[in-house]
Amino acid sequence: MVEQFIQLFAGESFRYSDELFQLLSSQSPAVTRSSDSEGSRGNLPCSHYLGIYRHRSASLARRNIGDAYWDDVCAAMDDLCDGLASTPDSPCCLWCIRDDVVEYVVFENTDSNTIAGCLRFDTTRQPER
């Protein structure tokens, strides 16, 4: 899966792309693809994720004001929403790339094989309630 991701997207520039490709080339992170997962509903349209991440971004912004990490997560979600909104009817495939500390969720527009957006999460952090 690592080789497939690199082959498809090595020439693309997107939020966190530099550090993600460095991780892929220097370590062996776990890589999964939503359309390959057992029980997958297939690739859902970008509009499906757009509503979810608009809501999540607004919710996080209200709860974590002033925290630089969560401000960055919200900004990444806003960028993702812009990418998803540009092609709402296109199928979207999620790639999850994870090591011990960080998880990237990459949203692929499968009509154009381009990246609609990328989120990065520190797996040791949880939003405040």
Q: What is this structure, in a nutshell?
A:
This protein is of the alpha+beta class.
Written account of the structure:
With 129 residues, the chain is α+β, with helices and mostly antiparallel strands. The protein contains 4 helices and 5 strands; from the N terminus they run ααββααβββ. Strands 1, 2, 3, 4 and 5 form a 5-stranded antiparallel sheet that branches. α3 runs antiparallel to α4.
Provide the structure class.
alpha+beta
Percent helix among the residues?
A: 40-55%
Question: Approximately what portion of the residues adopt beta-strand conformation?
Answer: 15-25%
What's the shape? globular
Q: Count every helix, treating DSSP H or I runs of 4 or more residues as helices.
A: 4
Give the low-confidence spans: none
What is the rounded distance between the termini? 35 Å
Instruction: Characterize the main sheet.
Output: 5 strands, antiparallel
Radius of gyration: 14 Å
**Mean pLDDT figure:** 89
Oligomer: single chain
Order of helices and strands: HHEEHHEEE
Give me the count of strands. Answer: 5
